[in-house]
Specification:
By secondary structure, this protein is mainly beta. The protein contains 3 helices and 15 strands. The N terminus is likely disordered.
Length: about 290
């Protein structure tokens, strides 16, 4: 008799779990998540579809779309966010996430301070994320960027605001396609782009940016003072650009004659970049600072 009752209980719990799974309020969950994300950063928007509960306790979504300040960043599939059961024995709550984007993956962890006030820690790693014609035109003329992204980012948030972050990213087969900016052809490609950066609440520090390509090589460093309107963020960057013979061959008459001097061996330009993202002020130097 007792076994029969136990069987009914198990059956009832199983039916209850199936009902929750099938009728899980995905739209409500998506709206709640978006509301919490906006508290962290008003420019960050995340749209999730096909939200369902998952085990260990958490949620999964069939698609997740990330947009920052009007720029579509990445489209993810099979996103899963779950509670790390090992964190039961600690004061902090830890959640693990993982997603697929074509042949690439995005994974990491989010650690919350639990009942006590404290910093939120975010760790993320991405491998071979393929993106095609990422629209940067709102801030960088009419540029579109394509490539294969890998790297890692670690961030700390305090009182729902970004406190610090640091990371490094690598983009293979990077391609910048140009619209209204027609300098040196319709597109510029790089075999590799490597960026090391760090941030605090108001400043993005480019510690080192190296871009290697057949047309040109570029190195830059400096700071970007982040404004409430991202396009008004102020630039304080130094850059050097080595133009290779192929650049001059493809650019033709589109570049000034003084830049073409010595182009058989390539030409190196030293620049300072001020102004804002929307309206940069570029000054050419005679030699490296």
């Amino acid at each position: 008799m007792k076994l029969g009752i136990l069987g009914y209980v198990i059956f009832a719990v199983f039916c209850f779990c199936i009902a929750i799974y099938r009728h899980f309020p995905g739209d409500t969950g998506s709206n709640y998540i978006q509301h919490e994300i906006l508290k962290l950063n008003s420019n960050l928007k995340i749209d999730m579809e096909g939200i369902k509960p998952a085990f260990p306790p958490g949620i999964k979504a069939s698609t997740l779309f990330i947009n920052y300040a009007g720029i579509p960043l990445i489209f993810l599939e099979k996103f899963k966010l779950g509670f790390d059961l090992f964190s039961v024995f600690s004061d902090a709550e830890k959640y693990l996430f993982r997603a697929i984007a074509k042949d690439g993956t995005l994974s990491g962890s989010l650690t919350l301070p639990g009942k006590k006030e404290g910093q939120i820690f975010l760790e993320s790693e991405f491998k071979a994320l393929l993106f095609d014609r990422l629209d940067l035109g709102k801030y960088l003329y009419d540029l579109q960027l394509s490539g294969i992204l890998s790297g890692e980012i670690v961030a700390k948030l305090d009182k729902q605001k970004l406190k610090t972050s640091q990371g490094n990213i690598h983009i293979a087969k990077a391609l910048f396609e140009q619209g209204s900016l027609n300098f040196g052809g319709d597109e510029i490609s790089f075999s590799s782009v490597d960026v090391m950066f760090s941030t605090d609440a108001y400043t993005l520090t480019i510690e080192n940016c190296r871009m290697r390509g057949k047309q040109l090589d570029l190195e830059s460093s400096g700071e970007i003072k982040i404004a409430q309107l991202f396009e008004n963020s102020r630039l304080n960057l130094d850059a050097s650009i080595e133009l290779h013979p192929r650049f001059f061959m493809e650019a033709g008459n589109l570049i000034p004659a003084e830049m073409a001097k010595g182009n058989s061996d390539g030409t190196t330009l030293y620049l300072t970049i001020g102004g804002t993202l929307q309206n940069p002020k570029i000054k050419m130097l005679q030699e490296k600072k």
